[in-house]
Amino acid sequence: VTRVSVRLGRVRALMEDNQLDALLLAGGPNVRWLTGFTGSSGAVLVGRESASFITDFRYVEQAGEEIDSEFETVISDGPLRKSIAEKVSSSSVHQLGFDSEDLTVDSRDQLEDVLPEGVELVALKGVSSALRSVKDAAEISAIQTAAALADQVLMAVLETGLIGRTEVEVAIDLERRARDLGAEGMSFPSIVAAGPHGALPHAQPRQEVISSGQLVVIDWGVVVDGYCSDCTRTVAAGPVSDRAKEIYQVVQSAQQAGVRALRPGPTGREIDAVSRGLIEEAGFGEHFGHGLGHGVGLEIHESPTLGKTGDVALEEGMVVTVEPGIYLAGELGVRIEDLLVVTADGADAMTHLPLALIEVG
Ligand code: ZN
Ligand code: ZN
Fold it and tell me: Around ion ligand 1, which residues have CB less than 5 A away?
């Protein structure tokens, strides 16, 4: 049994549950997840018995190398939707499902225009991210490799110190070392935010020198085999105030409580509430303005959501972040983020950096 046939089996089970004759998957990460295709133009039409991969002439060679023999490759000589419609007409499809997060309203309408009479397009919201949320062993191993590489990158950067370097310099250093160690790239633009700038959860690195006494929020991730890692550490540049240490301690306790709550069963909202409760008790509830975490995989933000809207129950094999923070405008920010995989009775850390506050020169 190949990885592809297992994934196709999961797609077909989902089609069965939704009484679909076929399911269309578009969007790079979804197509890559199912077929292994890494190009940017491709769609997959999964039927009850057959599965087609549809791309255009630019990708003939790449498709030949990457696409599993479970798929018939169709090279479209026009818009992909025409070939999709032809495939649909030649099989007895009545209910054709698609992920409404995959297709724009325009492309959905254009597809409907070329589909044969009697085919009904059925929108399923987030169906592909749900499929991708539970990772198999190969995916977990790729993410573990990425997370270990990311750990190594940060430790190397911290060894050279933070004080006197600009946020931009530190961000570039992270990225250069990641590439040197074999990463395909970064999961997202790295965040390096010192002092009051750390109070912005999505701060961009500035040409500002990091000075002694500042907390520095560093949030970075690397890509290995298409899979992302995601991690945050808040580091002390030189000695910091007792207040900064106290706030750090609150975030660390909240982070560890969230991690301990991870296991199959609870929803993302319930896990979020565990960490959030501790931050609220400490009086900083209004300063934790984002969700506790998110799934990570081929994309940096995937299902499930650990937050107030997280109604998906955790399952074994999901890979999630736990990243509470406290942000005090004009003063400082603290965020601690680990990446973990949910196991049968808990979760295993993929990040192996110290959780306690690290002080560097
Ligand atoms: Zn992050
Ligand atoms: Zn994150």
Answer: 219, 230, 232, 337
Query: What is the whole-number distance in angstroms between the Cα of residue 38 and the centre of ligand 2?
Result: 24
Q: For the full predicted model, state whether its pTM sits above 0.85.
A: yes
Neighbours of 211 (CB within 10 A): 13
Comparing C-alpha atoms, which of 315, 314, 316, 258 is closest to residue 291? Answer: 258
**How far does the centroid of ligand 1 lie from the alpha carbon of residue 256, in Å?**
16
Give 54-113 pLDDT, tens digit per residue: 999 999 999 999 999 899 999 998 889 999 999 999 888 999 999 998 888 999 999 999
C-alpha 32 to ligand 1 mean position (Å): 23
Residue 34, both tokens: 């199912």
The Cα–Cα gap between 194 and 68 comes to 47
CB-count exposure of residue 70 (10 Å: 0-12, 13-18, 19+): middle
- Centre of ligand 2 to C-alpha 302, Å, is 10
Give the ligand whose atoms come closest to the C-alpha of residue 222: 1
Instruction: Specify the amino acid at residue 136.
Output: D
